[in-house]
Amino acid sequence: MKQALTKQAKLDQIRADILDLNICEGLRQNATQLVFGDGSADSEIVFIGEAPGKSEDEQGLPFVGAAGKFLNEMLASIGLERSEVYITNIVKYRPPANRDPLPEEKAAFLPYLRQQIMVIQPKLIVTLGRHSLETLIPGLRISECHGRPKRVKIPVGRQGASTMQGAGEQRTELYKNVTAKEQTQPATPQRAANDGGVGGSADEQAIMSLVILPLFHPAAALYNGSMRQTLINDFAKIPKVLEQINNPKPAISKSKESKYVASNR
Q1: Does residue 29 have a pLDDT over 80?
Q2: Nearest-5° angle of CA 254, CA 260, CA 261?
Q3: Do residues 90 and 117 touch, judged by C-beta distance below 8 A?
Q4: Residue range 42-54: average pLDDT?
Q5: Percent over 90 (pLDDT), the chain
Q6: CB 34 within 8 A of CB 15
Q7: Per-residue pLDDT averaged across 160-187, rounded?
Q8: DSSP character string of the chain
Q9: Mean of per-residue pLDDT scores for the chain
Q10: Contact by Cβ (8 Å): 155, 114
Q11: Residue 83 pLDDT > 70, yes or no?
Q12: 122 or 172, which is more confident?
């Protein structure tokens, strides 16, 4: 009987696919190495930045420069270590001179990011910076929604749609308005069909419902006192959001609510 692959083995295969298919050849030629991801494949939380910088390119790990040190400090402030979470970027190679990643570069790597998410099955995704947020939830501005959890449905198969399902402010909602019935469910063929997957294999149709918490990028907050404190305050919400996901409060029906009010008058 064939033994099932571990999550880490599946992630290693995705990494190998990126290399074998020579994704973003132009970036690859100018980079030292691929920066795929780091941390626990079993983590409840995935942090997603935009692209590697100089230190990341040299070490082959995401968030190991000054921004990474700040991220580690914030993780410690909520009782977590780097090894307990999973950290990655939208783009896996360093853009020349640390320029912003181009739309076509983000689009090229997005299917592989979705595969990472599908393998890890996190309960919470924390986007770090505007590029990560806009790639995962087009139409939202980090300055307007930072620190406010959103629930979205995302295609996570190899051939998912080019944009996130539920993208845009009109199709997202504050996590506090999400009932227990809508909590994260595994990506399965049955769930994909229920959520409107179209054509292709079960893997191609896979849909996940996830909570995304948009935060400012640590690098942007390093030298801006007000933004730094905002990021620290937003980061401190992570344990509470996870608690709400893991222990959702059941919705109170109108009839039960009426009885409760009547008995407490």
Answers
A1: yes
A2: 90
A3: no
A4: 97
A5: 66
A6: yes
A7: 37
A8: -PPPPPHHHHHHHHHHHHHHTTTTHHHHHHSSS----EE-TT-SEEEEES---HHHHHHTSSS-SHHHHHHHHHHHHTT--GGGSEEEESS-SPPGGGPPPPHHHHHHHHHHHHHHHHHH--SEEEEESHHHHHHHSTT--HHHHTT--EEEEEE-STT--SS-TT-SGGG--BGGG--GGGS-----HHHHHHTT--SS-HHHH-EEEEEEEEE--HHHHTT-HHHHHHHHHHHTTHHHHHHHHHSPPPPPPHHHHHHHHHHT-
A9: 81
A10: yes
A11: yes
A12: 122
Residue 175, both tokens? 């996590």
The partner residues of 175 in beta bridges, in order of sequence, read: none
Which tokens in the block code for residue 81? 């270590």
Tell me the two tokens of residue 193: 């069909």
Place of tokens 């937003």: 234
Task: Quote the pTM value.
Answer: 0.79
Predicted confidence (pLDDT) at residue 18 exceeds the cutoff of 80: yes
Encoded tokens for 206 = 């896979």
Tens of pLDDT, residues 194-213: 333 223 344 445 788 899 99
Query: Which residue is associated with the tokens 């595969």?
Result: 115
What pairing do the DSSP bridges indicate for beta strands 150-155 and 207-215?
A: antiparallel
**175 near 125, Cβ under 8 Å?**
no
| Six token digits for residue 237 | 């919400």
Do 212 and 222 form a contact (C-beta atoms < 8 A)?
no
Statement: residue 173 has pLDDT above 50: no
